[in-house]
Write a structure and sequence with these properties.
20 strands; globular; single chain; binds adenosine-5'-diphosphate
Length: 450
């Protein structure tokens, strides 16, 4: 096992990783920017190192500073959390060159899945069904129009290096394609440093369903069921739940086994998520994330498996602790991502939390790094915390969610709590009858302003 783990992240995920390390008896090192001196992960870690000024590029993304922090503290492993350097293959390689373990997949798999075109190709070769689209990046406008006619309209232009819900454009007719390609290429170059784009059939009413996997890097891999993340705003997840209201046991087992087999074939190491759009009973692969995800607690609540502990164990060379048939799913879990944002305009609302009272009781979990009197700095993403609720059935889970949301008090800043209070009372949500564009419709109908 590792002697000491440096957590190269901040906020709730830094705390989440720290908790796993404590339970494994592994000393921790927190790193922080000058804006995060009072952060909870810094307070709770065994040691902490300041790695730079507030801007993420100078601190949480500052590889030389992180390497120095490992050296000074003697950390022999780095957990990257999600975001920042979590899917940076070069970072994993640099750590390896300095004899520090990266808690994550091998660089070749991070790189493969980081390129969405290569990832789709690999998925197809591994027997995973993909969204119909161009086989690779698109070249000239004429070629794009030819390809588009085969795929059919509407379609999506997507950035090969895209992420975080950015780099996507819907095209409804051939005449829109040349201008769309020009903008998409320019945006992709500016955001990701790569202007490769590809075409994909645009699915009108799919659900976003993702399968959680865990592999030991030696050819054993299991799946841990799915999460339904169809409630999205601007392609970003807002509400996640598991199991998906749209799947039955047989379908779950089938897609889960297809994905787990693919992970065994490539000898995948660590946790990962294989994402699909699910429409008309068909799964269509869109991408794979090679890290722990924001919504991982949903799976933890319905399997009782600590994904971060398992991630650390396999990174240290341990075998999997579970066979597929020992993974049992029980009950239902829902996660709400609570952001420091105005719930109508979604304008960020950093500032001081003057009163904080999280909900509690049976089946209620709050993953957050804020506290009474904490000031949310303006430099990072606006996630304040995640409320995760578990129930024996989906309806018990929804009932518990409503009462937990009503108990939750965060004063001093604006949050998206009112949005979740409204969603938990919507008939379509209660019925589990929604798709990836449902939330857009809710806002178009007036959303919270109704
Ligand atoms: P990112 O890496 O930026 O998260 P994804 O490829 O995972 O991008 O897609 C994010 C979301 O964008 C999906 O969950 C879905 O809502 C939407 N999306 C992506 N591809 C398509 C598509 N072909 N048709 C319709 N919606 C799509």
């Amino acid at each position: 096992m590792f002697d000491k783990i440096l957590i190269a992240n901040r906020g709730e995920i830094a705390l989440r990783v720290l908790r796993a390390c404590k339970e494994l008896g592994i000393p921790t090192v927190a790193v922080h920017s000058t804006a995060d001196e009072d952060a909870m992960h810094v307070r709770l870690a065994d040691e902490s190192v300041c790695i730079g000024p507030p801007a993420a590029k100078d601190s949480y993304l500052n590889v030389p500073a992180l390497l120095s922090a490992c050296e000074i503290t003697g950390a022999d492993a780095v957990h990257p959390g999600y975001g920042f350097l979590a899917e940076n293959a070069r970072f994993a390689e640099i750590l390896a060159d300095h004899n520090v373990h990266f808690i994550g997949p091998r660089p070749e798999h991070i790189r493969l899945m980081g390129d969405k075109i290569a990832a789709k190709r690999a998925a197809r070769e591994l027997g995973i069904p993909t969204v119909p689209g161009s086989d690779g990046g698109v070249g000239t406008d004429d070629e794009a129009i030819r390809l588009a006619r085969d795929i059919g309209f509407p379609l999506m232009i997507k950035a090969a290096a895209g992420g975080g819900g950015r780099g996507m454009k819907v095209i409804r007719a051939a005449s829109e394609l040349p201008a769309g390609l020009t903008t998409a290429r320019a945006e992709s170059l500016a955001a990701f440093g790569d202007d490769t784009v590809y075409l994909e059939k645009y699915l009108e009413r799919p659900r976003h369903i993702e399968v959680q996997v865990l592999g030991d890097g030696k050819g054993r891999a299991i799946h841990l069921g799915e999460r339904d993340c169809s409630l999205q705003r601007r392609h970003q997840k807002v509400w996640e739940e598991g199991p998906s209201p749209a799947l039955n046991v047989a379908t779950r087992d089938q897609i889960g086994e297809t994905v787990a087999k693919a992970m065994r074939d490539i000898k995948y190491l660590g946790v990962g998520t294989v994402e699909f759009l699910y429409e008309d009973g068909k799964f269509n692969f869109i991408e794979m994330n090679t890290r722990i995800q924001v919504e991982h607690p949903v799976t933890e609540m319905i399997t009782d498996i600590d994904l971060v502990v398992e991630q650390i164990r396999v990174a240290a060379g341990s075998d999997l602790m579970f066979a597929q048939d020992s993974v049992k799913f029980h009950g239902h879990a829902i996660e709400c991502r609570i952001n420091a944002e105005n719930p109508v305009s979604f304008r960020p609302s950093p500032g001081k939390i003057v009163h904080y009272h999280p909900p509690g009781g049976l089946g209620v979990r709050v993953d957050s790094a804020v506290y009474h009197g904490y000031t949310i700095p303006p430099y990072y993403d606006s996630l304040v915390g995640k409320l995760i609720v578990h129930g024996k059935t989906r309806s018990e889970c929804l009932m518990r969610l409503k009462r937990a949301l009503d108990e939750f008090v965060i004063d001093g800043i604006e949050t998206t709590l009112p949005l979740f209070r409204a969603l938990a009372r919507e008939t379509d949500i209660i019925d589990g009858d929604y798709h990836i564009h449902w939330l857009e419709g809710f806002f178009a109908r007036g959303g919270l302003e109704q």
